[in-house]
Amino acid sequence: MNGIVDRINYQKDWLSKQAWIVPACFGFSCFLTVTSVVLLAFRGLDGLKTEWMFSMGADLFCMAICTMLCFSAVLNSKARNSDTYVFITLLTTNAFALFLDNVCWLVQGIPQFRLINLTANVLFYMFGYILIYLFWEYIRRALKLSDKPMKMADAFVTVMLYPSLVLCLLNFVYPLYFSVDENGLYKHAAQFDVSQVYLSITLTVVFISIICSRASKKDKFVAISFVAIPMVNQILTSGKFGFSTQYAAMTVSIVLIYGVLFADREKTLASTEMELGVATKIQANMLPNTFPFMPERGEFDLYASMSPAKEVGGDFYDFFMVDEDHLALVIADVSGKGIPAALFMMATKILIKNTVMTGKSPRETLITVNNQICENNEQEMFVTVWLGILDLSDGTLVTANAGHEYPVIKNPDGDFELFKTKHSFVVGGMQGINYKETEIKLKPNSKLFVYTDGVPEAENENENQYGCDRLISVLNRHKEEPPEKLLSVVSDDIKAFTQEQPQFDDLTMLCIHYKGK
């Protein structure tokens, strides 16, 4: 059963990447609404009973509502997530069921359209099951029903859907649920009640799951409306052939869900966007961004940049004068992304700078910072760090590497090459780590390029990574350029490589040109 659950979840996660679903559903809903009007005009009202026309009018009105809600989702692209795609699919499935109901009434009692009536009714039953299933899927996501019993219920509801659909298809050859006679008239079959089994079981599971969830009373009430409103409609229209308004009743519930759950989520989204905007500004101000840095110092020229994958990132760089002759250089990558990583990043940055300014070496700094972070690291986050302190008087660069990428160094008359040393463990991973130091002698006119793993691990549409070889090749093609230009050409080359692929990780780079005294 666990394997089935994992496979189902894998297939459902596919929805979250399909941006075309929303405009496609809107276009399809428009097509169904217009087609229904055209078919009604072509068919005319002759021979249509009053209750049939009432049902058809309700269907057309609800199809228009579904179309407008789809259009709202098209306009509100910022609020989209995997829940949105499930909701829009639910909405469009409901619109198609309404369309099929319309078709059934338009061809009812017309012998030459018997096959159309049969096909429309088979699909009508099938999409009823699909609609109930999609509602369950949306509520499961919206109310975050994710504990083990809910996962088992989800697997059961999903697995039971398939045989239910197969039984619907059986009506093409055997009148299991209904029949359409030679006069084109639809009638219930003796086993009609069997068609309600999947609906009854699923709605019971949905009802129990909603009641047992930790959602607010308001959200529970709204979710249960999808069960209650169609049920009340079924009671009121039971035994009255011609009043098929169950999908119209479902539309009322969908509108209620949209008006409450979606509205609340969009309010939360607006608040979150405002908070993220503030966080982005705070993070940007935490990083040194005044270039050129200390232009009065002729011994060096440096430039750095950080492009977060989200509004805020976990990467950071830093550079500052320790004293008159020593320049500290830092680049780091925090585990995770978003606001938690940004908060951890800011705390780590402050600890590193404060420790370096006490006169400690890179090795001593990482030992001290690592122990401080490990003391209160309940979230078990960590950070890779490359820290170097450059003696501007003679070019001696003392470095310590806590699980970070290898630096790339260019000697005065040579090319850029990876400078490989043994990595120490990450900062924040384990208390009491003894970090190692490496000494590098930079000759005048040497260059140093450091970066985070977002650079070599940037992927294109074929899932191929950018890689260190391509990075070094680009650097060597422009090796005489100043640091700012080097970072620009690397950034442009990464964009050319990844093309339209979304940025997966933060991209952070720092380059220094050591000119010497």
| Overall structural domain count | 2
H/E series, N to C?
A: HHHHHHEEHHHEEEHHEEEEEEHHE
Largest sheet: 5 strands, antiparallel
- From the alpha-carbon coordinates, what is the Rg to the nearest angstrom? 32 Å
CATH architectural group of the largest domain = Up-down Bundle
Termini separation: 70 Å
> Any low-confidence stretches, pLDDT <50, length ≥5?
1-16
Question: Numbering strands along the chain, what is their spatial order in the largest sheet?
Answer: 3-12-11-8-9
Strand content: 5-15%
Structural class: alpha+beta
Counting DSSP E segments of at least 2 residues, the number of strands comes to 12
CATH class of the largest domain: Mainly Alpha
Helix content: 40-55%
Overall geometric form: elongated
Predict the CATH topology of the largest domain: Rhopdopsin 7-helix transmembrane proteins
- List the total number of helices: 13
The pLDDT mean sits at 83
Task: Give a structural overview.
With 517 residues, the protein is of the alpha+beta class. It folds into two domains: 2-270, Rhopdopsin 7-helix transmembrane proteins (Up-down Bundle); 291-514, PPM-type phosphatase domain (Phosphatase 2c, domain 1), CATH 3.60.40.10. It is 53% helix and 14% strand. The chain has 13 helices and twelve strands. The chain has helices at residues 2-13, 21-43, 50-75, 82-107, 114-142, 148-169, 197-212, 217-237, 246-286, 338-356, 362-375, 468-477, 483-498; strands at 178-180, 186-188, 300-307, 315-321, 326-334, 383-391, 396-402, 408-410, 416-418, 438-441, 446-451, 507-514. The strands form three sheets. It has a five-stranded antiparallel β-sheet with strand order 3-12-11-8-9, with helices on one face. A five-stranded antiparallel β-sheet has the order 4-5-6-7-10. A hairpin with a 4-residue loop joins strand 4 (315-321) and strand 5. The chain is elongated and about 100 Å long. The N and C termini lie far apart (70 Å). Mean pLDDT is 83; it is low at 1-16.
